[in-house]
From TrEMBL:
Organism annotation: Cebus imitator
Biological role: May play a role in intracellular calcium sensing and homeostasis. May act as a negative regulator of plasma membrane calcium-transporting ATPases preventing calcium efflux from the cell.
Domain of life: Eukaryota
Name assigned to this protein: Solute carrier family 35 member G1
Record-level GO BP terms: calcium ion export across plasma membrane; regulation of cytosolic calcium ion concentration
Domain (EamA) ranges: 70-201, 223-351
Length: 365
């Protein structure tokens, strides 16, 4: 998984706002209006007096329709790429999580700058939205740093599953700041998520001194747990800010603030910690490049998926991140997850899937 960075994710959550069903509907309506304005009588049938002819409308619609299941395939590919990026974060040796975040920001900056120049959106943004862009950048980059730290200090599966608790926090923050409805179903999904996190963390006051299946010391694991939960919280706050801004801010401008402030924040933290150092191993340098490359690829395919598929099925398919994390942990680290972790993962995935199905059902009414 990749942080709404889930992003990213959080970056999951990052590309979510500009590509909502409403936004896509508006784009298609504008395109249709422009076409009608340009050729008002083109293709008008003399028999049925419709434009285009009813006999040709259905084949044309079929021709333009995307391949069935293509959006879900893009989502699956996105989940795989995000999971591989997380795997490389786990495999990097002697490079601090904050430094990995800095390299990621530099890589994305090189991609975003040409996009902003091409789209002519500028680098500052609308005057009334700049404070939200700054908050989005700071919170989003902090979420990225926290998930990288969690992945370095916890098992790949545990860290990934805990970060999937972000939708629960999103519902709570949207209720508080955006006055969105918080239903009993949301409360039930919250309970499921909290139960899943507890099963994964296994706090001593509930489970005693049983640490079977935990390779790292409990103090290190606890730090990783707080980092993963922090990632979920900051990713949720980022999503709320993106919802607040709506479609008034270009998506690439939002990413621009994210990478610039993320690089600035990473450099300050590295200076304070004194952890800045170039990786000595050539393989680690390759991993740093691949982290940015696969993370960007995951964002691209998630964006394409949201363009041609409803958000509900995409959100459900995104839970494949957890499956890939379990598979990679077993194959590359020879670490078989405990039944506690499996149970916790099932609770969190059930919560995410339930929330997605419920919203999908409500939107289809």
């Amino acid at each position: 998984m990749q942080p709404q960075d889930n992003a990213g994710a959080a970056e999951l959550e990052e590309p979510g706002l500009p590509l909502t069903d409403d936004a896509l509907q508006g784009v298609s309506e504008e395109a249709a209006a422009a076409e009608a304005a340009g050729a008002p009588d083109r293709g008008r049938c003399w028999l049925c007096r419709s434009s285009p002819c009813c006999s040709r409308a259905e084949p044309e619609a079929k021709k333009k329709a995307p391949c069935p299941g293509l959006g879900l395939f893009y989502t699956l590919l996105s989940a795989f790429l995000f999971s591989v990026s997380s795997l490389f974060v786990k495999k990097v040796q002697d490079v601090h999580a904050v430094e990995i975040s800095a390299f990621r920001c530099v890589f994305q900056m090189l991609v975003v700058i040409p996009c902003l120049i091409y789209r002519k959106t500028g680098f500052i943004g609308p005057k009334g939205q700049r404070i939200f862009l700054i908050l989005r950048g700071v919170l989003g980059s902090t979420a990225m740093i926290l998930i990288y730290y969690a992945l370095q200090t916890m098992s790949l599966a545990d860290g990934t599953v805990i970060t999937f608790s972000s939708p629960v926090f999103t519902s709570i923050f949207a209720w508080i700041f955006l006055k969105e409805k918080y239903s009993p179903w949301d409360a039930l999904f919250t309970v499921f998520t909290i139960t899943g996190v507890i099963l994964i963390v296994r706090p001593p006051f509930l489970f005693g001194s049983d640490t079977s299946g935990i390779e790292e010391s409990y103090s290190v694991r606890l730090k990783g747990t707080f980092a993963a939960i922090g990632n979920a919280v900051f990713a949720a706050l980022t999503l709320v800010i993106l919802r607040k801004m709506g479609k008034s801010v270009d998506y690439f401008l939002s990413i621009w603030y994210y990478v610039v402030l993320g690089l600035f924040e990473s450099v300050i933290v590295l200076f304070i910690l004194g952890e800045w150092s170039l990786p000595y191993c050539g393989l680690d340098r390759l991993f740093l490049i691949l982290i940015g490359l696969f993370g960007l690829g995951g964002q691209v395919y998630l964006t394409k998926a949201l363009q041609i598929e409803k958000a509900g099925p995409v959100a459900i398919m995104r839970t494949m991140d957890v499956v890939f994390a379990f598979i990679f942990q077993i194959i590359f680290f020879n670490n078989l997850p405990t039944w506690w972790t499996v149970g916790g993962a099932l609770c969190v995935v059930a919560s995410n899937a339930g929330a997605a199905i419920r919203k999908w059902y409500q939107s289809s009414k």
